[in-house]
Amino acid sequence: LDEPLGALDLKLREHMKIELKALQAAFDTTFVYITHDQSEALVMSDQIAVMNAGRFEQIGTAQDLYYRPDTAFVAGFVGDSNRWTGKIETASDGTLALRTDGGLLMRANAHERHLSIGDRAEIFVRPEAIRLARSDADLAHFDNRLSGRVTSLLFNGAASRILVQSTQGSPEIEVTLPQSGEFAGIGRGDAVHIGWSGDQSNCFALTGAA
Prior knowledge:
The chain is of the alpha+beta class. It contains four helices and twelve strands, in the order H-H-E-E-H-H-E-E-E-E-E-E-E-E-E-E. It folds into three domains: 10-77, no CATH class; 82-125 and 199-205, CATH 2.40.50.140; 127-195, CATH 2.40.50.140. It has helices spanning 10-27, 38-44, 62-67, 72-77; strands at 48-52, 55-60, 82-92, 95-100, 105-110, 120-125, 131-133, 144-154, 161-166, 173-176, 191-196, 201-205. A hairpin with a 6-residue loop joins strand 9 (161-166) and strand 10.
């Protein structure tokens, strides 16, 4: 199946995803599904192959690629992520602290065990892994915490997000917006605190770093 849903409008495309899954189950045979639409790949597939420069970067389930990427390319390519680069300051027992190029100290899991102090590396954090709060005290259990202001609202229904400019000078951070509660009516200029766990930060060696 080569881009089978590419010419369909949104609602029909969503309906046909269900129909194709049902057909595949009914015929009990393998479908090779080629698509540039990541949503289709994640929804339709039992196994996904991500290619880069003519070679396979990773083959696995949608959950493996999304939550447990093997490489920085897969972490940045599959889905949306916030990305920081910097230098590792501490590393032990599978965890590390990285000082970003903007001066922030971030903690993460080391997905590459050979990373050591002084290495250049990059961290990826999913927008939905970041929590919003009105005060830093509400995020005390998170390894990483920042304060800032909302610079933009990206409304997309259930998938709405905001951009937060940190007071510590970090690039704008994309955060998934809760659909209910105190942040449902958040707007530009509002002060917020954000936090996330090091367990949800994927860190890899920076390719080509000096």
